[in-house]
């Protein structure tokens, strides 16, 4: 990435005017699988009506209900997309290899984050949930044990057999507890158009409207996050009784149940109050009063009692409508301060700022290792990843291909770690709404390395420089820069 001159500069510049819908491998969601080809789960007429309704909600309804949010997000898109084209065409040799003295994981680094007004740390415990085998049984336990409330926000609430199974569980519990489900309008609408890779039961028929299905015969409250300027809310956050939260990269559907490699984390302790507040704000804003709902006093969440083995956690957001780019900014600081190691696993690695910072770390001798999917859910992003791999390998980094789709979004820089919903692309860093946690506890960082990185390095195949040769990588990288 970032060779100069860029072969396809004009193509990249032209992409500035494209809407976000066409610019995100993740936004295309599970419907964009490369191989094997997927069958359409809804008939063309029904699919067309669904997308038409979604487009109406993203434009007309969003402008009426969320005028302030729409205006702010529009300005953000108009600024950040051209900026990415400019950054991507600066010769890498002319970009200063900036470093900071504060090493990630140290008290000095945490003090730096405080000085730069990042969200302060709150106490919480972490339990890592790897793949569907780790997450869905925990989801089952939390659904069954909830006594007051179940709040679910995902990017995609699919309409396959797994999603219907969990819809039925939530509908059943809505007789006893408050159940609220929030999902992204465009993300789910596009996902509903195609079937998963693995076949559902032969007698299964997908519901054409999951909002109607969730409401039918139940007390489940359902809202969809609107998409002004086709900006997505990519957050995945589940909160139970305001005492337990789960967040990370997984949506509700078959891909996440048994097809993709992914990561969630269960959080307990006072940090859950912060996460419950995040859900509450998003829920209120996506009701019938839109932006006006945020003028009312927010609900105060009493922090759960401190837990004995809790650690300081920072709740980080990308929320461009209010100028928050905490995930990107903290990642760049950690990369600039890294002295020993940078471990990354991410399905979409195309943000030029992050690539430059990782490249600089590798060039100054940091042990940089990056895991990418062998075959992701977007052909363009796969090719863009290849261009990123070439740039980093040339700088001395080690790149790996995980044997199947890895959807994990996790990074370790020395003794600091972050994970959540954010990809390393321009959408997650600058445009979409995202949610991550970050922490510097030595024992927990090493546990994450043992749980995720060590096994995945062992399972993955090393990418060599010759593997990155492609006739289309320049074009793909120009496109991926806008995704």
UniProtKB/TrEMBL annotation:
Q: Where is the PLD phosphodiesterase domain?
A: 229-256
In Pfam terms, one family for this protein is PLDc_2
InterPro entries attached to this UniProt entry: PLD-like_dom, PLipase_D/transphosphatidylase
Decide whether keyword DNA-binding is in the record: no
UniProt cross-references to Gene3D superfamilies, sorted A to Z? Endonuclease Chain A
Its signal peptide is 1-28
Name the chain's protein: Phosphatidylserine/phosphatidylglycerophosphate/ cardiolipin synthase family protein
- The source organism is Luteolibacter algae
